[in-house]
Amino acid sequence: MRIREEIEQWEYKYLSPYASKSAESAGRDIPEEECDIRPVYQRDRDRILHSNSFRRLKDKTQVFLAPEGDHYRTRLTHTLEVSQNARTIAKALRLNEDLTEAIALGHDIGHTPFGHAGERALRRVCPEGFEHNVQSVRVVEVLEKRGNGLNLTKEVRDGILNHKTKGSPSTLEGKIVRFSDKIAYIHHDMDDAIRGKILCEDDIPKELRNTLGDTTTKRFDCFTHDIIRNSEGRNDICMSDEISEAMMELRQFMFDRVYTNPLVKGEEAKAERLVEFLYEYYLGNFDDIPDEYKNLVNRHGTSRERAVCDYVSSMSDRYAVGVFNELFLPNSWKDM
Length: 336
Known about the structure:
Blueprint: H1 3-14, H2 40-49, H3 52-56, H4 75-92, H5 97-106, H6 115-125, H7 132-147, H8 154-161, H9 172-195, H10 206-212, H11 216-231, H12 241-259, H13 262-265, H14 268-284, H15 291-300, H16 304-314, H17 317-328
């Protein structure tokens, strides 16, 4: 079968000259025989989608801890919304959708339980530090498949590592995901805040609504169209100065009114302490962590501190709470 080769040739014919071509990938750390059907970035997308770490995102906090209602975002639904928006932009600009989607699906795969509260806790207690984008790369390079990693291409790993605001992806597809991550969380976190009656539409400064739109959907549309208009035919992904400035003002508004709001974040100190307790317990009782994490010390020269971080950060919210209750609550209290 020559399906993969035909797809690779199609990319040369139809994609933008600035697109990342599958046949020109810098490759994997461990060389593999090529698939006869799927180009390299499609294989990477599939590996991430079928990983244990990706599935656990369904029970990891986005912003609202244990919200009452089925429609609030989780880390998984955030990831899917980033992927959808990134693919829309990539398709419009004739860039590589498979690479874009692989980066988008993997960008938060190393995130902690309880969202950024868990990340802050591990950063505080681990002497080696903790950053979720770095951990996401560690997941796909080392931790998945019981310490063997997913052996993804360098372009996908680069996009995952550099998806944060301060990052500088080496591909246009990675730059799309970097923008799409911000667009997605500003959009859906505001939507969730309005649903949770933390905000109402009239709270948003009038000048921002005049510039970007007077609903979350219109603002989402505005950001997406602006990126496409300003990036078309260019070897860069960018926004107009006006919309970029308005987006950063809206992001700051969200930090002031939602991300630091006691009504939203009032329980986060408890979540952080729970994560710290788990880290401290397993560091002092290292033999209690699963073998696949203990084996990292011998196989990869990983420190015990990093191995404990790997285990605790992998937990879903529900699992972390269950482990905490098992370790620290007396049996007679558990059914009270």
